[in-house]
Amino acid sequence: MADANTSESVVAAVDLGSTSFHLIIARILNGQLHVVDRMRDMVLLANGLDHKNRLSEEAQKRAVECLARFGQRLRDMPASNVRAVGTNTLRRATNAEQFLSVAQHALGFPIEVVAGREEARLIYLGVAHSVAPHAGRRLVIDIGGGSTELIIGEGFAPLSMESLHMGCVSMSRAYFAEGVIRARDMRRAEIAARLELQPIERQYQRLGWQSAVGASGTIRTADKILRANGWSDNGITQQALHKLRDAMLAAGHVQRLKWDDVSSDRISVLPGGVAILLAIMEALNIERIEVAEGALREGTLYDLLGRIQHEDARETSIHALMARYQVDVAQAARVENTAMTCLAQVVQDWKLVDEEHAHLLRWAARLHELGLAIAHNQYHKHGSYIVENSDLPGFSRQEQTRLAGLIRGHRRKFPLEVFSQLPSAQIDQEWRLCVLLRLAVLLHRNRTDTELPKFTLAAGKRSLRIQFPADWLAQHPLTETELGCEAEYLATANIKLEFA
After folding, report:
1. 77-109: per-residue pLDDT in tens?
2. Residues of the chain with pLDDT under 70
3. Is 109 helix (H, G, I), strand (E, B) or coil?
4. How confident is the model at residue 4, as a pLDDT?
5. Which residues pair with 24 in a beta bridge?
6. Residue 210 and residue 135 in contact, taking contact as beta carbons nearer than 8 Å
7. I want to staple 416 with a disulfide (CB 3.0 to 4.6 A). Which of 340, 384, 468, 493 is the partner?
């Protein structure tokens, strides 16, 4: 690991939440994270979603301005030391891709949109690192702007993760329009939350836990108000939370709610958050919730630290998929080794220099036969579907889409139309990685450990030439024939393959 005084020892995480955006920067000292800076902006991104789930221009402007400020603070940091994640609102927004292209430019770093369960995993990781070690299981609750995550885990390992489609912003918009707080609407909001919780109630109660911990804005705001009013001095209890609800009902409108150190933006979405929190405590019979400092952003930092220290959750997900679908490990290893040999020869000419390019190619090689567990016919499509639609801890949605595309394209027709749906900056990278994967698969069709000859690759902008030792192809007519077929497949995508 780099010396503590170098830039490589500093890592950062950006959390593009549905309510607030957060930036956290930390130094790595002796394998531990020490926070050196934090920034936060109440962007209220979820408020910008219209009835067609399109982000408004105003919400996008607020978000981009915030990310530009974050980007200035992160300037000159290595890309591998920064991870930015988007959550529920960016999962829902139909124009998320257009927004992300502008947002990434403002921030200066890629932004990953994570699935609900991946968000839950990161939240648990952040909470587990911010509370005292605890024997037994803990329930972690995080009420965000557009979703609510519930996780049961032990130590640093989550056992059950759920992301529910309700949050303080969405609930406040649905039941407390214009900021009016009425008893009937509060009851309707609590019932809606109970209905969302109903499918997981029995499962969670059966698993059980010894302590409940809450994280993020709604829970931390509620705890602050309860302490300030003397309603609770030891976490959040149902009795204390009912007093908060009664105070809001007595006020009748969010504009009449005044608490020190609580912003008007946070108060505006508090009624929906309190309704969800009450429903959770009642549905799961929770007596008290401890409040944690850590949440998604801290979990993202610790996950990034794991990648730096070669403890990547994505590797665990790949191994789990291979085991679940009984992938031929020996064949996967052959293809992986040859694919990496190919990459090493074209890495500069084809601009595949980022570590993530090698990761994607390596994982695609390991999983390319995943779909055989379903059927041999069109197994590349089956495998692609599995990867794109599974919950894969550690992966963003964009990473799963790219990985699925490589698996989809590793045989038969070259699916340039699949790659064309990616952001423009990734299209060339994707088809080039796919060509290397296809070549590695082709060279190992005999599925034996017979050593391949040493071959060389020469890459052009849209071309690849493979040179074998003299007479090798003549002695292997099947491979020569298949290379000819492959050249025809690639020609349909305006890619020239030559071999000799």
Report:
1. 999 999 999 999 999 999 999 999 999 999 999
2. 1-8
3. coil
4. 39
5. 13, 38
6. yes
7. 493
| Partners of 11 in beta bridges | 26
- State the Cα–Cα distance between residues 197 and 286, nearest whole angstrom: 14
Fold classification of 312-452 (topology level): Hypothetical protein af1432 (1.10.3210)
Structure tokens at 434: 């796919």
Beta carbons of 286 and 280 less than 8 angstroms apart? yes
Same fold for the pair 7-114+299-305 and 312-452: no
Residue with token string 């950006």: 14
Which among 200, 184, 112 is positioned nearest to 150, based on CA atoms?
A: 200
Q: What's the pTM?
A: 0.86
Q: Which two tokens stand for residue 154?
A: 């032990």
Which tokens sit at 386?
């599995």
H-only helix segments in 114-253: 116-128, 168-175, 183-207, 216-228, 238-251
With 0-12 / 13-18 / 19 or more C-beta atoms within 10 angstroms meaning exposed / middle / buried, residue 427 is middle
| C-alpha Rg value of the chain to the nearest Å | 26
Given the structure tokens 């996950």, which residue do they identify?
A: 303
| pLDDT recorded at residue 494 | 94
d(CA 383, CA 380): 5
Half-sphere exposure for 7 (CA within 13 Å, toward CB) = 9
State whether CATH 3.40.640.10 applies to domain 131-292.
Answer: no
